[in-house]
Amino acid sequence: xxxxxxxxxxxxxxxxxxxxxxxxxxxxxxxxxxxxxxxxxxxxxxxxxxxxxxxxxxxxxxxxxxxxxxxxxxxxxxxxxxxxxxxxxxxxxxxxxxxxxxxxxxxxxxxxxxxxxxxxxxxxxxxxxxxxxxxxxxxxxxxxxxxxxxxxxxxxxxxxxxxxxxxxxxxxxxxxxxxx
Length: 180
Prior knowledge:
By secondary structure, the chain is an alpha+beta fold. The chain has helices at residues 51-60, 69-86, 112-131, 150-161, and strands at 5-12, 28-30, 36-38, 89-95, 99-106, 143-146, 168-173, 176-179. The chain has two domains: 5-14 and 65-179, 2-Layer Sandwich (Alpha-Beta Plaits), CATH 3.30.70; 28-60, no CATH class. It is globular. The strands form two sheets. The protein has a six-stranded antiparallel beta sheet, sandwiched between helices. Strands 2-3 form a two-stranded antiparallel sheet.
C-alpha cells in the first residue's frame, strides 16, 4: 500500500491530564481581554501549573480512566483492525496507562481529526463491550502531528517504541508484523 500522508497521533485517557496540570497542558485560556487563546504552537511555550484551573477542571470531571494491561491489548487489537478496514498502515503503537501514541500512514489526504476520531471511537466501542460501558474513555481531540518525511516517520516510530512504562508497544516491520 502507498501512503500519501503520515501522522503521529497522541491523546490522553479521560481526566488524567487536566487543564492546569503542573506537567504542562494545551488548552484554551482566557487572555486579558477574556478571549480564548490556545497554547499549542510547536516550539513555543505552553502553560504549566495553573492550580485554580486544575481544581476547576477536576471538579467538572468524572472519574479518571487509567488503562490496564488487558485493556491495552484490546485497544491495540482494535487499532490494528481499524487501520486494516480503513486501508491505513499502522507503523507503531504505544499504550500507556494514561495516554496513547500511534504512527499511521494513509492514502490521500483525510483530515487528521477523522483519523483520531475513528481510532478513538472504535477503541471505545470495543472497551465498552469487553469491560463495561463508560461514557468517556478519552479526552476530547488530541495531538495530530504531520510527519513530512521518511526521516520524520522513522523518528516518530522510534519515539513511540521507546516510551517509558508502556502497557504495550507494537511496531510494524516491513518484513512482517511483529510485536515489539
